[in-house]
Write a structure and sequence with these properties.
Elements lengths: L1 H20 L2 H22 L7 H29 L4 H27 L5 H54 L7 H20 L1 H12 L3 E7 L4 E7 L2 E6 L2 E5 L3 H16 L5 E3 L2 H10 L4 H4 E3 L6
Parallel strand pairs: 5-6
Antiparallel strand pairs: 1-2, 2-3, 3-4
Helix pairs in contact: 1-2, 1-3, 1-4, 1-5, 2-4, 3-4, 3-5, 3-6, 3-7, 5-6, 8-9
């Protein structure tokens, strides 16, 4: 579960960087490389933790829950309010989460070594971590992001990390010196992440209202992209993943050239098919027949 949650934060950071900075190959490569490098640093630092290992594990788990769970929301807001610092903040958070996750796995193995033989311990820990990583890597693009969105997905796995910390609190309650303080930290972390999960739409709206120049009149998240329509003095504008696709004011420039030659050459078509809403509307305006009754169109737009 530790590796699975960490993988979600890594994927969320890469997806956000691709949406907002473009060049998905570069963004995913640098994010994954930075994350793995940070995990190595965390594994090296774990040698300096010698006493109270359950307490250290619990604190690190709560930090991963808070920082990793809030990562998509923080980056989304940062892009809207301080876009110049977005790249720095992105890699700083990726490095921090990677270091913390790199600390966790060696600590877990050292804690479990008390009751499990080393051969069995390494096999079990790595097997479950890698199987969990496979499940998450499939669920992230197919289920989690299409159904929950990036912000809620991050917060959901932050809640899972906090739940692991709560389980560790109960499991090692007899070894923790400050049990009440740790319990309070768990409750506060769960409460903060739960509140963020419940108010994820407000976070998205807050960021989008700042990011777009005009008033946002429609938003939707499909399995393929984030759709935003704004309305202002220049008319309506359509954005996909934050990138302008077309504006009402000059829409005719790039749709009439596609539609008018074909419509004029045919004369008065009775049946036709379009694969984009804007082009379909231009066909309707160009056709002399009751086009909406005779037309068939599908929007198969993908990034």
């Amino acid at each position: 579960m530790v590796a699975a949650c960490g993988l979600v934060y890594e994927l969320a950071a890469g997806a956000l960087a691709s949406y907002l900075l473009g060049d998905s190959v570069l963004q995913f490569s640098t994010v994954i490389g930075s994350y793995l490098f940070a995990m190595g640093i965390g594994s090296y630092l774990s040698r300096f933790f010698e006493r109270q290992l359950p307490a250290h594990f619990l604190r690190i788990e709560l930090m991963v829950a808070l920082i990793g769970g809030a990562l998509p929301a923080i980056l989304f807001i940062a892009n809207a309010y301080i876009p110049g610092a977005f790249r720095f903040l992105l890699y700083a958070m990726v490095l921090l989460v990677g270091t913390l996750v790199g600390l966790e796995i060696p600590l877990v193995m050292r804690i479990l070594r008390r009751n499990v033989a080393l051969k069995e311990l390494v096999s079990q820990v790595l097997t479950f971590d890698y199987l969990g990583a496979l499940a998450v890597s499939l669920a992230f693009p197919l289920v989690l992001v299409p159904q929950l969105g990036l912000i809620r997905t991050g917060l959901l796995f932050g809640l899972m990390n906090a739940a692991i910390a709560l389980w560790a609190l109960w499991l090692f309650r007899h070894e923790l010196r400050h049990l009440q303080a740790h319990a309070l930290a768990c409750v506060l972390t769960l409460g903060a992440l739960g509140a963020g999960f419940a108010g994820a739409e407000h976070i998205t709206t807050l960021a989008e209202d700042r990011f777009y120049q005009d008033r946002v009149v429609f938003t939707a998240t499909t399995p393929y992209q984030r759709i935003v329509v704004t309305s202002g003095k220049a008319g309506h504008r359509l954005f996909l993943n934050g990138n302008l696709q077309f504006a009402e004011r000059d829409e005719y420039r790039y749709h009439e050239a596609l539609v008018h030659p074909v419509m004029s050459a045919h004369g008065a078509p009775k049946k036709w098919r379009c694969w984009a809403a804007a082009t379909a509307w231009r066909c309707v305006k160009s056709s002399s027949t009751p086009a909406w009754k005779a037309s068939r169109w599908s929007n198969w737009t993908r990034p």
